[in-house]
């Protein structure tokens, strides 16, 4: 069994980057942009309504405040400020998720914040503090899982704080031998060949391993598989990945 997630709602005003309706036909979890790297209130509301209608879990994809750079530029944000901004983003999405008859089911950082929280203990702790603030506002009995890279400072900090953690892998990103992602500034960081992406998804679900850029094998306990929503033909790719997983006897189901 594995969860299939993708980034949704990555537009702003009249500009739309992700094919949200098509992606929601295939994924089981939707990482919804919360307005800091992409997204706006109308987009967040629309995506939450569509996700709730289709039974797709809604996740808050929190980011550095970087609309111009799509949240992919390195930033130095004080820990207290970052924690507040994470809580703010989760809270904003929660309004629309609840209004749609659903709820925010997990939190996943985006872009530069995701990569920074892999190795930066302070920034990871700030993200976790923000999630805990948002969780406290939901009341008792409403845990907020954190989705992140296996072995990251983020998941370690979340576990230490008592938050549920979910390890994820990327079907369409290249990996370094140490299990971290190849930076997007390097050639081959994003995989575009559908057959290569599908092979990676099947290997992960069946054997629990990934192949690094140098050909080495990486063990992975990932429970969720990400297909980026902003890559060309993302919706078609997500549909094929889900079909091939099902054909291989893998149950595709939300972790949350």
TrEMBL record:
> What is this protein called in UniProt?
5-oxoprolinase subunit A
Q: What class of enzyme is it?
A: hydrolase
State the Gene Ontology terms under molecular function.
5-oxoprolinase (ATP-hydrolyzing) activity; ATP binding
- Supply the CDD domains for this chain: LamB_YcsF_like
Q: Which UniProt keywords apply?
A: ATP-binding, Hydrolase, Nucleotide-binding
Which Gene3D superfamilies has this protein been placed in? Glycoside hydrolase/deacetylase (3.20.20.370)
Would you say which domain of life the source belongs to? Bacteria
- Recorded family membership: Belongs to the LamB/PxpA family.
So what does this one do? Catalyzes the cleavage of 5-oxoproline to form L-glutamate coupled to the hydrolysis of ATP to ADP and inorganic phosphate.
Q: How does it assemble?
A: Forms a complex composed of PxpA, PxpB and PxpC.
* Organism, scientific name: Streptomyces reniochalinae
**Per its UniProt record, what NCBIfam families does this chain match?**
PRK05406.1-3, PRK05406.1-5
Stated EC number for the protein is 3.5.2.9
Q: Does the keyword Metal-binding apply?
A: no
Q: Which GO terms describe its biological process?
A: carbohydrate metabolic process
């Amino acid at each position: 069994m594995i969860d299939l997630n993708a980034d949704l709602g990555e537009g702003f005003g009249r500009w739309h980057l992700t094919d949200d309706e098509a992606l929601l036909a295939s994924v089981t979890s939707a990482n919804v942009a919360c307005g800091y790297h992409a997204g706006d209130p109308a987009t967040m509301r629309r995506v939450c309504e569509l996700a709730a209608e289709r039974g797709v879990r809604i996740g808050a994809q929190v980011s550095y405040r970087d609309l111009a750079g799509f949240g992919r530029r390195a930033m130095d944000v004080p820990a207290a400020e970052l924690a507040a901004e994470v809580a703010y983003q989760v809270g904003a999405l929660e309004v629309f998720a609840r209004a749609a008859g659903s709820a925010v089911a997990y939190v996943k950082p985006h872009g530069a914040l995701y990569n920074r929280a892999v190795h930066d203990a302070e920034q990871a702790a700030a993200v976790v503090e923000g999630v805990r603030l948002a969780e406290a506002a939901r009341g008792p009995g409403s845990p907020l899982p954190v989705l992140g890279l296996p072995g990251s400072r983020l998941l370690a900090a979340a576990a230490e704080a008592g938050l549920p953690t979910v390890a994820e892998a990327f079907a369409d990103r290249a990996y370094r031998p140490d299990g971290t992602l190849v930076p997007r500034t390097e050639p081959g960081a994003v995989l575009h060949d559908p057959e290569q992406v599908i092979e990676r998804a099947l290997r992960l679900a069946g054997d629990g391993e990934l192949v690094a850029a140098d050909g080495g094998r990486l063990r992975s306990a990932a429970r969720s598989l990400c297909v980026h929503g902003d890559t060309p033909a993302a919706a078609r790719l997500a549909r094929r990945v889900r079909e091939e997983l099902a054909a291989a006897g893998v149950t595709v189901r939300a972790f949350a």
